[in-house]
Amino acid sequence: MTCTQKPAAPTRRDILKSGAAMATLQLAPGVTLMAFGGSEAQAAADAGKRWGLLIDAGKCAEGCSACVTACADENGWKGKGDAERDAQWIRKVTLKNKATGRTSELPVMCQHCESPPCVDVCPTGASFKRKDGIVLVDKHICIGCRYCMMACPFKARSFVHEPVTNQKTHAPRGVGTVEGCTLCVHRIDAGRIPACVEACAATGNGAMVFGDLRDPESEISRRLAEYPSLTLRPDLDLNQGVRYAEI
Amino acid sequence: MAMEKTLYRELPTTGPLWAAAVLLGAFLLGGLAAFAYTHHHGHAVTGMTNQVVWGLPHVFAIFLIVSASGALNAASIASVFGHAPYKPIARLSAVLAMSLLVGGLAVLVLDLGRPDRLIVAMTRYNFSSIFAWNVLLYTGFLAVVAAYLFVQMSRVPYGWVRTVGTAAFLWRLALTTGTGSIFGWLVARPGYDAAIMAPLFIAMSFSFGLAVFILVLAALFRLSGRKIGRMMYRRLGGLLAIFAAAVLYFTAVQHLTALYAAEHAGIERFILRDGGIYTWLFWLVQVGIGGLAPIALIYLPRFGNSAAEPILASVLVIVGGLAQVYVIVVGGQAYPMELFPGYEASSPFFDGTVSAYAPSLTELGLGLGGVALALLAVGVAAKVLRVLPTNLMDANVPGND
Amino acid sequence: MRLVILITGLLLTALSPAWGQDAAWAPAVPKASGEPHPEGNAYMRRWHMSMMKHDRDLTMYDGERGVNASIGECFECHAVKDEAGQPVTVADERHFCRSCHDYAAVKVDCFDCHRSTPEGFEEPPHQASLGRGILPTLPYSAQMAQVLEYLRASPTVTAEARE
Prior knowledge:
The complex is a heterotrimer. Chain A is α+β, with helices and mostly antiparallel strands. Chain A has 7 helices and 11 strands. Chain A has helices spanning 12-17, 66-75, 117-121, 147-151, 185-189, 195-202, 219-226, and strands at residues 26-28, 31-32, 51-56, 90-97, 103-109, 127-129, 135-137, 157-159, 178-180, 208-212, 242-245. In chain A, strand 4 and strand 5 form a beta hairpin. In chain A, helix 2 packs across helix 6 (195-202). Chain A is globular. By secondary structure, chain B is an all-alpha fold. Chain B is built from 13 helices and 3 strands. Chain B has helices spanning 15-41, 56-71, 73-79, 90-110, 118-123, 130-153, 158-184, 197-223, 230-260, 265-274, 277-299, 308-334, 361-384, and strands at residues 227-228, 343-346, 391-392. Chain B has a two-stranded parallel sheet with strand order 1-3. In chain B, helix 2 packs across helix 8 (197-223) and helix 2 (56-71) packs across helix 12 (308-334). By secondary structure, chain C is an all-alpha fold. Chains in contact: A-B, A-C, B-C. Chains B and C meet through helix 1 of B and loops of C.
């Protein structure tokens, strides 16, 4: 059999070389040319990193929901006022110690587990963990079965109950699929910090620290080494990327 | 007494048969309408929320899928365990098993957020997901039972029937184990996360599936003007009582085990004492109506031995079974997850509060549509295939002695 | 051999003058702003879906945001404006993607999740209230509408509108 010329499917090379506006970010996987000032982040997911959050409940102000508002604005999930069905990527939880009566507040969002139950149970593999530890939903193959919502111990995921419009370009979301905190992955890839952390810092409370858990020199690692902290549901041994202190 | 050979014949066309078909067709259309409505508007029009993510459609789907496995009881008893009196009803048993599974899967699939992506579920498997395994178990079950029906209906040596029947029997155990494990392997929620879910679901399948089988058998015979003997009813009824008792047993072990652990005291108090609708459903409907009542009906001698008894017992088992699946599926989600042991949690996202769930008419419509699909499929199969014997009077059933 | 024929056929389709100036039945592709694609229009028409799928996976799984074929940037140049000068959403049949996809009767579900207008534009809720159809976009009626439109319009106008 003779071979005729096949119309070449575009290779990654073609796509990379096409387009004047295209900036070459990588020479080879893992080798980054660009550096981002003021942050430990770099472009593209890096298997050498593990992004995490440290939330200091002692600094989380009562009644403040700057992180929640910032997340809703950044990712465009503001609901229609139906609290039971509106998406909730991040929420403020008020805790009262049953024994002592002491109250505290803290934000809860996707905990970006190292062994995420949502990824284990997802039948199609739509729930996945990026190599830098961020747990995401591939909405292109999510069939909307909601088994991940059954499996998540933190109620971190929401189901989109209605057709939506006016999504953010960087945060696509659509009816019939499941979604949750992305750790502002689009910002991280651009060398910025998550919107909630930025907003928390802007209030002056500074209750949230973002950084690379694998880098012993990062602020988050230094604080974790210095002060006591915990993960939610430690009995499940999921090794979350989100840690809490001073609950 | 001379015994006739068992003759299998297609259902004759009768008025009542057509009436039943039209009725089921109406429910099927209702189910499709419910699907179209929900799909158009999104799940906002259902009672399901971000707290109770699986609702009435899942109750129906799981009930039908579990029953599908149990509907195969009669066939398994005939070909695997060699009890001759069950042989005449083995074909219907296989047909019903397939139909119920298809009905249940239809409900499950049509309730997906993206039912248009069914092809994704069939082509991409995450093998660490029991859900993905179930997709294979379900489709495999259809294939194995279809083969089983084929060998039963063709002139092959009986050894074939036994071999394929045994494969089908093992497969159905795997299938129900898989279905139970959908809940049993959920570490997050206190109402689930228990290995006993698998055997509990197997017991449930034995009981619910047989109940559905008895009703379908009685209905098809009534609609086609054929007769069933008292012995057949007695036999099936006795078996149903044993299975209903097995469900009660596993339910008791499930809750006793959980009660022993302090960490599960909350969910147990919720289901068994303080849960309102769920407590009522558990004690009154699941245990009382669906467990104790049918057992009493079958076993207490003063109720006599009429044919109506196993039929009534079957209805009670099905009612109780739906309640049981509802308590497991919805009750298990309504009770809040304990993210912060030792603390009272509250939030705008309903942390620490029992979630409300009011099923909508669309969900009921979809669920009933699935039931109608299953029953219609059985009827059509019995109309075009020779699966039903012409006569199940005691004198015509083998091995009645 | 069949493969060869198929591929040749595809090649011919991709390069066929049906996409060019003189086919009266071709869809009216709205004019874009900005620089043309260096790959050329024929290449984009044939391969845009593969390019977007390829780059979407790079972005989603590997976090490479500098990719060329990202759906987010399509509407920087390919936004069709309505009478009021505002970009139309995919709910409008003049939308860039729909101009071809309706004609080809290929339903895309990109816009269940992605916005169909440039970032920053406030999309009216109208699109969402349309809900989701069970059936794919009605190919026949859409195609017929196109055909009728072409029959009515003069060929020179359509040729202009196309490029």
